[in-house]
């Protein structure tokens, strides 16, 4: 049998991926284990071409409102986990959330992402009231929720109140790996059930994982890619794992920017029209992280719209950026960053374009 080099092996698999948008798990694993700087550049170039053919040089923005850092969960990696006693806990009132939306709308945001811990205060009645008020005041905007695992009934009511999109990262597609990252009170099966329920209800669904998460192997990432390929999410949020000093996983190293960018590019090849953010975690690991993300196939950025007073308290990981700025500064900063690499931030709901 001909002895093919890793480079040829990568090229063959990428060509197949480009045509079929699917590979065997072993092939994804091969692509992760045999990369070289040269093949990385080539794949990222391809991803950028695909993104430009669908979305041009437009970058969609989402105004991120981190409205509560109170959480009943204890994810081992997360800085705002319930058992971290050093966090100054806060929750925004309905008026404060609406005021952030007002600021955001004036700044040109047409998507609001309400993200928070799993805070029991936000019952269905309370959260639905907030969602419908935003929906009524800003009918030209999309409302995205990212508030973790809730009942099917709750997801349905929130959808009916006007939320159209939901971000619920699967975190890892491997049940054993999931158990290493979460306490036994949380279950992989339930997370996956929630993701499927959201899809069935009609939400545009965002899944995703941390790159370089503790105990993660190339095989795990290959399983993640397979899950992304089969689930076909509307959005996919990936960013490097960054340790937080007050969590059980504080001593694990952070994930790599290069590997994150490489995976962004592979995801673009798997799902050409997916909405793919260049995350704040990427920007935290590298001052040019978000630019590098866009130059690997990302087409979304999520500037912070939370009131400046609470930003430091939504510390999922150490050294999180953009905690001191005003919303307008964040938006302006990202606009300039995108312009510097030849892209423009647009005032648009930023729905997925189906090809
Ligand atoms: N509670 C909701 C949930 O669980 O989906 C939303 C908030 S949660 C903090 C948002 C995401 O932050 C998680 O899905 C996780 O992937 C990411 N995250 C948490 N801790 C992190 C860390 N140390 N480094 C990088 N990302 C982290
Ligand atoms: Fe709940 Fe992180 S443990 S948001």
Describe the structure.
- The chain is of the alpha/beta class.
- The protein is 45% helix and 11% strand.
- The protein is built from 14 helices and 11 strands.
- The strands form 3 sheets. The chain has a 6-stranded parallel β-sheet.
- β4, α6 (152-161) and β5 form a beta-alpha-beta unit.
- α2 crosses α9 (218-231) and α3 (37-55) packs across α10 (257-270).
- The radius of gyration is 19 Å and the shape is globular.
- It starts with 5 loop residues before the first helix and ends in a 9-residue tail after the last strand.
- 47% of the residues are buried.
- The mean pLDDT is 97.
- S-adenosylmethionine (SAM) is lined by residues 77-78, 115, 117-118, 146-148, 168-169, 171, 210, 239, 241-242, 244, 281, 316-317.
Short description:
The chain is α/β, with parallel strands linked by helices. It is built from 14 helices and eleven strands. β3, α5 and β4 form a beta-alpha-beta unit.
User: How large is the count of helical segments?
Assistant: 14
Q: What is the H/E order?
A: HHHEEHEHEHEHHEEHEEHHHEHHE
Give the fraction of residues assigned to helices.
Answer: 40-55%
- Report the biggest beta sheet as strand number plus sense, adding barrel if it closes: 6 strands, parallel
Rg, Cα atoms, Å: 19 Å
Give the termini separation.
Answer: 39 Å
Structural class by SSE content: alpha/beta
Low-confidence segments, given as residue ranges, are none
Q: Strand content of the residues, in percent?
A: 5-15%
- Distinct small molecules: S-adenosylmethionine, FE2/S2 (inorganic) cluster
Please tell me what the overall shape is.
Answer: globular
Strand arrangement, major sheet:
2-3-4-5-6-8
Number of strands: 11
- What number is the mean pLDDT? 97
